[in-house]
């Protein structure tokens, strides 16, 4: 007591705060949970990112002759080689220009088409409007490379070996520029991401305060002026947000450039990163990963800034709901042609093309004798490595098993961790811990999947202390997938816990229930729907994903997505298309399951 009395005031204050914090930690389990989660996600998220960044400035084993330093020492060799050497154009600048050209073109095309379709669905009495609300979102539910495989099936020419495309089989030779490269990449990515614009802009139009439009009409303002001077400026935050999100996704897109870009050496940053890793240029791959990460982070930070600035565009009024629609009169049926053509091109034709290709012996020949189910359930196929249809193939069912085990296990763990993250964020009394958990679980969303996979590879390819090298094991895929899908699971858990008060848990605490019992008997039963959503959503995203698995998986750990790509590499196009159809079916079914569990759907925001 005497020592405390004689201590300086600042020391006394520090000791009192420390004792207060210790007392809080002892009586609030959420604080201990927060500390555990901080340690866990620092290792799973922050450590891989730091590891890949360090790999760009540290000499690798086998490169001593080039770096002129021993392995493990600091070196600028990889930075100079990638950024400023004679090889830099091939390694970085040309793929960067290609990536930017595709991304910017896709952003412009999706905004043009998406805004038009949003206006037709939300602001007019177009025929079949309610049906199109759901149908226009379907392309976003499908794996992006579904469209690439359908495009290749139709337009594949003699440039690539193997079976010809349908047009080539009919005697129509498609030019390389149409079959591969920039043009198909832009068209396919536009079809895939236009529904995202429809969702974002459609919801913004729904919330638009119609009183502003009414006032302008009363004052005699022409409708064109209203659209350009009132509606469009107020839609600017939604448009910019959609543009930035699509731009960021295009940067990290791998499967489509892999399928349609590599045959004509049209490399993007993601495919160039894959080529660098495949040729064991790990230092160059680290620099490319850092560039992709930087672009993704800057793009999505701009999106955050746009969301904050969107508050300046809040309109004053009552409900703000749009109670009227433009009457198109006899044109309402003609107006439906545009969304009908979009659904036809982006859903019906790709899926029908893939299905027909799986039941044809020879591509593009539509006579009855050419149709078969051999690629589904056939025996003793006349191929080198594939002797049975996929449904009778051991490799296919091994991929299915790996998918269920790897993606399923990662999704379950991510969903549970997401709920615990929400609990820690909302219940932890230490603000800094809460903020760190919230931000670090969102960090993987800022890093494109191909770069995040490279980061995990750099950290776990070799042993570190008690943790062995995990490359080639299902454990690495599960851990990487858990970390990559935490943005989905954690946001689901945080939103769920935000809506749950402390009263029920406090009552259980007073009744003598321990923390584990409170979690299992109260929190989980109440939050069962968000928990299931936090599991199913990562599962859908994971089963469609390619970027993470293509870097970390080996043939023994193939999942359905990598298995289909390996079939493509061996020119087994029909079997690959069949696998993709199975993936699309599972993804669509999972999305429908989420809608059934939550009572909502992706398209619900567009419905009046």
From TrEMBL:
Residues passing through the membrane, by range: 32-57, 100-120, 132-151, 179-201, 238-260, 283-302, 333-362, 396-421, 442-461, 467-483, 528-554, 574-594
Subcellular location per the Swiss-Prot or TrEMBL entry: Cell inner membrane; Cell membrane
Keyword Membrane listed: yes
Record Pfam families: BPD_transp_1
Keywords: Cell inner membrane, Cell membrane, Membrane, Transmembrane, Transmembrane helix, Transport
Record has Lipid biosynthesis as a keyword: no
Its membrane topology: Multi-pass membrane protein
InterPro entries listed in its UniProt record: MetI-like (IPR000515), MetI-like_sf (IPR035906)
Source domain of life: Bacteria
Domain ABC transmembrane type-1: 96-303, 400-594
Protein family: Belongs to the binding-protein-dependent transport system permease family.
Name of protein: Iron ABC transporter permease
Naturally occurring in which organism (per UniProt): Celerinatantimonas yamalensis
């Amino acid at each position: 007591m005497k020592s405390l009395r004689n201590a300086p005031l600042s020391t006394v204050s520090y000791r009192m705060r420390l004792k207060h914090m210790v007392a809080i930690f002892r009586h609030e389990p959420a604080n201990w949970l927060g500390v555990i989660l901080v340690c866990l996600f620092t290792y799973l998220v922050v450590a891989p990112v730091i590891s890949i960044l360090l790999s760009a400035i540290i000499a690798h084993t086998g490169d001593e002759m080039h770096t002129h330093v021993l392995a493990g020492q600091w070196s600028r060799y990889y930075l100079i080689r990638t950024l400023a050497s004679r090889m830099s154009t091939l390694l970085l600048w040309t793929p960067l220009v290609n990536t930017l050209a595709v991304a910017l073109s896709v952003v412009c095309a999706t905004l043009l088409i998406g805004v038009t379709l949003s206006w037709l669905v939300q602001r007019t009495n177009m025929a079949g409007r309610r049906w199109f609300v759901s149908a226009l979102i379907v392309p976003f539910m499908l794996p992006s490379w579904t469209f690439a495989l359908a495009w290749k099936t139709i337009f594949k020419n003699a440039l690539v070996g193997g079976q010809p495309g349908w047009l080539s089989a009919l005697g129509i030779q498609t030019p390389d520029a149409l079959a591969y490269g920039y043009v198909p990449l832009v068209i396919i990515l536009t079809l895939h991401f236009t529904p995202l614009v429809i969702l974002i802009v459609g919801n913004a139009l729904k919330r638009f305060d119609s009183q502003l439009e009414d006032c302008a009409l009363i004052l005699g303002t022409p409708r064109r002026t209203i659209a350009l001077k009132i509606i469009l400026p107020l839609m600017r935050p939604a448009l910019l947000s959609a543009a930035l999100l699509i731009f960021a996704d295009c940067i990290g897109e791998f499967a489509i450039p892999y399928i349609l870009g590599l045959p004509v050496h049209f490399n993007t940053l993601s495919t160039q990163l894959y080529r660098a890793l495949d040729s064991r240029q790990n230092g160059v791959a680290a620099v490319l990963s850092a560039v992709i990460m930087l672009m993704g982070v800057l793009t999505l930070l701009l999106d955050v800034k746009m969301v904050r600035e969107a508050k300046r565009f809040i309109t004053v009024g009552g409900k703000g709901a749009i109670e009227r629609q433009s009457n198109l009169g006899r044109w309402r049926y003609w107006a439906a042609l545009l969304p009908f053509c979009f659904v036809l091109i982006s859903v019906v034709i790709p899926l029908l093309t893939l299905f027909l290709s799986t039941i044809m012996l020879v591509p593009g020949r539509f006579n009855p004798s050419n149709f078969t189910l051999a690629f589904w359930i056939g025996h003793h196929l006349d191929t080198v490595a594939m002797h049975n249809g996929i449904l009778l193939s051991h490799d296919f069912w091994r991929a299915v098993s790996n998918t269920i085990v790897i993606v399923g296990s990662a999704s379950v763990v991510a969903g549970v961790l997401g709920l615990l993250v929400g609990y820690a964020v909302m219940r932890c009394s230490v603000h800094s811990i809460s903020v760190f958990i919230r931000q670090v679980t969102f960090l993987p969303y800022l890093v494109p999947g191909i770069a995040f996979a490279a980061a995990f590879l750099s950290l776990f390819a070799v042993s570190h202390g008690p943790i062995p090298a995990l490359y080639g094991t299902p454990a690495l895929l599960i851990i990487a997938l858990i970390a990559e899908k935490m943005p989905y699971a954690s946001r689901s858990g945080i939103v769920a816990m935000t809506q749950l008060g402390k009263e029920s848990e406090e009552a259980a605490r007073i009744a003598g229930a321990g923390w584990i019992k409170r979690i299992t008997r109260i929190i989980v039963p109440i939050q069962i729907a968000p928990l299931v959503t936090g599991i199913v959503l990562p599962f859908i995203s994971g089963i469609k994903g390619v970027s993470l698995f293509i870097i970390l998986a080996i043939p023994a750990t193939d999942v359905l997505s990598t298995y289909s790509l390996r079939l493509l590499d061996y020119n087994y196009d029909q079997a690959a298309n069949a696998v993709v159809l199975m993936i699309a079916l599972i993804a669509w079914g999972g999305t429908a399951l989420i809608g059934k569990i939550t009572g909502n759907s992706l398209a619900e925001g567009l419905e009046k």
